[in-house]
Write a structure and sequence with these properties.
The chain is of the alpha/beta class. Helices cover 37% and strands 15% of the residues.
Length: 319
Amino acid sequence: MDFGFAVPTRGPLAAPEDICRIASHGESLGYAHVYVNDHVVVPGDIASRYPYTQAGDWPGAPIGEAMEVLALLSYLAHATTTARLLTSVMVVPYRNPMVTAKMLSTIDVLSHGRVTVGCGVGWMREEFEAIGTPPFEARGRVVDEYLSIFKELWTQDTPAYDGEFSQFSNVSFLPKPVQKPHPPLWIGGESPAALRRAARLGDAWYPVGNNPRHPLDTVEAYAAGAARMKTALDAEGRDGSDFTLAFITNMFVAPGDGKAQDGGRMIFTGSDDNIRSDIQALSDLGVKHLMVNLQTGSMDETLDNMSRFASDIMPAGGN
């Protein structure tokens, strides 16, 4: 198993020099991925339910700030040398698919083939409407179409597409990505639709553990989710040899008393031995990539968290 860390897109540590310091520190400690999340605007009034808290409130709402994910990924291509550059996750319907495919291809060239595209359908209707995307209700179909467009543009010499939301032909799309056949597509989400999308279009399943409607908040719950993912792959006729499992968690953060929905201990809470045991259990279930959010509002605390995790916890993953 390998590991990744987040860099801030907002808040007191989102200055360029701080982002570079965090990224360089992570690389020096042996983290394999650096990841960036995605919002374009923050509406003043948000009625949409955030999927990853019990109450449905989004913790980022009061801040009103967000760096653009692909611009920041391009910056990180220069600020790093070895870490893979992960969108975690890019809300696919927010951007024109041809422009997005070109930006990702360009970043892959600039980084010598280090891009991984974490993909999501999004949840905030108000942000969709502010940006002027296709209808919020159609976002699942939009993602399926846009991912197919990415692959068409990245792999075909004379790409063409005639879809519900985008049509093109008679174009040259260069440069192609360095990675062949294309940068990996990690499909986020925990719902049955997300698993079907991952099986149909993805190179990895990339869920979050703390979705109250689809909890993966214990090892047992994750094992059941991985079994559902395997069933979805079987339905698509895929044997899993070209597919991997990834996972993302907020370290040192647990709602309430750290209890999972079934009353047991929430995954990645408790002692270091508990967390090492969780990592080993996920590794045994086939998880190859674990992303951990170790940020606080303090640079010293963030760097210390990254160092402690690297020295005390990461060895449990076998790297």
